[in-house]
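Archive maintenance. Older records in this collection stored only the sequence; we are now back-filling the structure field for every entry so that each record is complete. The fields below show one back-filled record exactly as it appears after the update. Entries are processed alphabetically, and YARHG domain-containing protein is next in the queue.

ARCHIVE ENTRY
Title: YARHG domain-containing protein
Organism field: Methylobacterium persicinum
Length field: 182
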Amino acid sequence: MRKVGLSIFGSVLCSIAFAAGSAWAQVEQERFSYPVGLDPYGDNFLALRSQPSGSDGVRIARLGPNTLFIEIGRQGGWVNIQLPSGQTGWVSARYVGCCRTAETGPTVRSAPVAPSSCDDLLYERNAIFKSAGYCFRTPRGIRAFGNAGCQYDDEADVPLSIRQRQQVTQIRATERRLGCAP
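Back-filled structure field:
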């Protein structure tokens, strides 16, 4: 019984840290959730999905075992999370542990597992554009990310940070190297 209380308390601490609007620059003092129960001899990642469902929406990223994130909401057995990059999505609540500070975790700022397929790369790239307000035109993009709250019809107009632009450039280079369809 006490374990459950601590788990709920930990989740509340994570939620309070996010609700307080703490900057990611202060990650050493915040408490984060992280993936648990992954199979190190299997896939060893937690799927970040565009919707709170294993069948609706799409996988937009793969989170490694040391990826830190903040819980921003819950719906049924799903947790809406935000990564330090600002990317948001849904993960199965079954695989969410809480709480860990960035300095006590195995890695201070753990990155998601690198995408290994053209689909993974496409979704990772489009997730960056979605988080910045891009309006998708293709049925696949609209189905995966929707256009709620979108503001920009042209990728060149989307206000990405320098880091996000570098990520998009790296993803596109990997897509070219793998021969992914444009």
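Update note: Strands lie at 31-35, 46-49, 59-63, 70-75, 78-82, 88-92, 96-101. The domain at 2-101 is CATH 2.30.30.40 (SH3 type barrels.).
Entry marked complete.
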